[in-house]
From TrEMBL:
Superkingdom of origin organism: Bacteria
InterPro entries linked: Nitroreductase, Nitroreductase-like
Organism of this sequence: Weizmannia acidilactici
Start and end residues of each Nitroreductase domain: 20-73, 90-158
CDD domains the UniProt entry points to: TdsD-like
Listed Gene3D superfamilies: NADH Oxidase (3.40.109.10)
UniProt keyword annotations, A-Z: Oxidoreductase
Record's keyword annotation contains Mitochondrion: no
Similarity comment text for this entry: Belongs to the nitroreductase family.
GO MF, one example: oxidoreductase activity
Organism lineage string: Bacteria, Bacillati, Bacillota, Bacilli, Bacillales
Name this polypeptide is given: Nitroreductase
Length: 195
C-alpha cells in the first residue's frame, strides 16, 4: 500500500486507524488474495444490527467477467479511475423482515461498511465507496430483488500512485479533513452546540 503523509489530526484521542482510512482513487492492478478479501466481510459481519436483522448483503466482483458487469453500470466519471480496481462490492440491505419494515436497514448496512473499511486499513488495503452509478441498471444486471435497497458500491484493492490517475484527479488524491466535532454534536436539542 502506498503510504501518504496524512495531514489529519484528531481533536480527541482515538486509534490511528480512523485517520488512516480515506478513499483514494488510484488502485494497483493487483489481485487481493481471497482470505484477505474475505476478512473484510468477516469484520462487516460483526457490525451492530437492530434486532439482529443483519440486513446487509454484499455482491462482489473480482473476476474479469464480473468486473465488466459492474463497469456496465458505473458512472462515466468513476470509470476513469475504476479500470484498475481488482475487486468491487455492492452494498445492499434488506428492507423487510417477517415482522415488517426494517427501519434501520441502511443504518446497519452503513455500520457494516464502516467495519469493512477499517479492516481494509488493517490489511493494507484501500477502499473507495461511491454512489456515482446507475442504481436501477445495477439492480437489473445483478438480479437484485425489490425488497433490497441498493446502498453503495465499494472499490477494494491496493493503493496505487497518484501519478497513475488522470491529471485532473491527481490533486484530489489526498485524505480529506473533517469539520470539528463540536459542529456535529448538539446538546439537548437541535442546533444547541456544546460549550
Amino acid at each position: 500500500m502506498v503510504k501518504t503523509f496524512s495531514p489529519r489530526k484528531a481533536q480527541y484521542e482515538i486509534d490511528p486507524v480512523y485517520l488512516e482510512r480515506w478513499s483514494p482513487r488510484s488502485f494497483l492492478e493487483k489481485e487481493v488474495p481471497e482470505d484477505v478479501l474475505m476478512s473484510l466481510f468477516e469484520a462487516a459481519r460483526w457490525a451492530p444490527s437492530a434486532f439482529n436483522h443483519q440486513p446487509w448483503r454484499f455482491i462482489i466482483a473480482r473476476t474479469k467477467e464480473d468486473r465488466e458487469k459492474f463497469m456496465s453500470f458505473i458512472g462515466e466519471f468513476n470509470k476513469t479511475w475504476c479500470k484498475t480496481v481488482p475487486s468491487f462490492a455492492l452494498v445492499i440491505s434488506k428492507t423487510e423482515s417477517d415482522t415488517g419494515p426494517i427501519r434501520s436497514h441502511a443504518f446497519d448496512a452503513g455500520a457494516a461498511w464502516g467495519y469493512l473499511s477499517l479492516e481494509a486499513v488493517r490489511k493494507g488495503l484501500a477502499t473507495h465507496p461511491m454512489t456515482g452509478f446507475d442504481f436501477e441498471k445495477a439492480r437489473e444486471v445483478l438480479n437484485i430483488p425489490e425488497d433490497y435497497a441498493i446502498d453503495a458500491l465499494i472499490a477494494i484493492g491496493y493503493q496505487g500512485e497518484k501519478d497513475a490517475l488522470p491529471v485532473a484527479l491527481q490533486e484530489r488524491e489526498t485524505p480529506s479533513d473533517r469539520r470539528p466535532v463540536k459542529e456535529s454534536v448538539f446538546e439537548g436539542s437541535f442546533g444547541k452546540t456544546i460549550n
